[in-house]
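quick one, 338 residues, struct below
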Amino acid sequence: MPRWKALPEELDPQVREFATQLRRLVDKSGLSIAAVADRTGYSKTSWERYLNGRLLAPKGAIVALAEVTGTNPLHLTTMWELSERAWSRSEMRHDMTMEAIRITQARDALGEFGGDGPGASRPGPGAGPGTGPRPAASGGWHGPESPATPPRPPAASPAPPAPPAAPGRGRRRTAIFVTALVGALLVIAGAVLLTDLGGGGDDTAKVAESPSAKPSPTASELPPGVKCAGDDCTGEDPELMGCGGEFAETATTTKVGTAVVEVRYSETCGVAWARITEAAPGDTVEITSTQGDDQPQTGTVNADKDAYTPMLAVPSAAAAEACATLTTGVEGCTTAGG
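---
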């Protein structure tokens, strides 16, 4: 049975070449994926994703792999930078495709209300301003009229009741309202985005924060590869969000039975998570905050004999506590703050 699965067909050629090179390094080293995970500090599950082309490895993982395999890190990081650009371009193309689909769906939805959808009527070629539908005095919509035709004088007899407005007018009003609403939302979203990027420039417009809360860095302040900070990271995978590897350290550790339980802390992201190793399938590990009401995050050990929890936002490493419950009934926790 082959050691490696076939790489996804839709993978960018640059990323494919990089993943293939990583596989060669692992094969040349003679290490198993579990051994690579143990020596680099990145989980076995993460390395399986990196080596199978499902996720681009963070730079920290590449540097660690170079050290483990005795490879020149300069060459490997250069290949990673090229692959990172190719990966970003692929994600951008995917986002643009999804945006085009959403725009098409929105246009079709507006067409159902009488807007410029597939069923809406449009003036023919060469039609001028005077040849399109024009509103009648009664409020209904009539077909083309000659611009030279003078309006009829009012009749001497009492005017008949005005006919009810044609259904098309209501649909056009609805379409105009929806279009205006969408435009307003886009303007608001743009203003919020500019504010987040520092375009507002008015400190008085910022929402007041608790003086005890540590402000989370903005996206522009985070190192390359780090995708979240603070509360935005809670419940997320530390490896996928770039908070592990070089941006994390073991704050506290303890033994629970035969298992090793650690509190992993990332000051860059302002989060902590729990990791358990040398455990048995079915053992669980949990991370809690001693200074907040956030729900604990839990991880369960599988056949790899290790596991880690999703992240939890904490003000400091001292506010995090990791606890393990083994299938043998043994329980234990790290000491918060030590």
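DSSP finds six helices and eleven strands in the chain.
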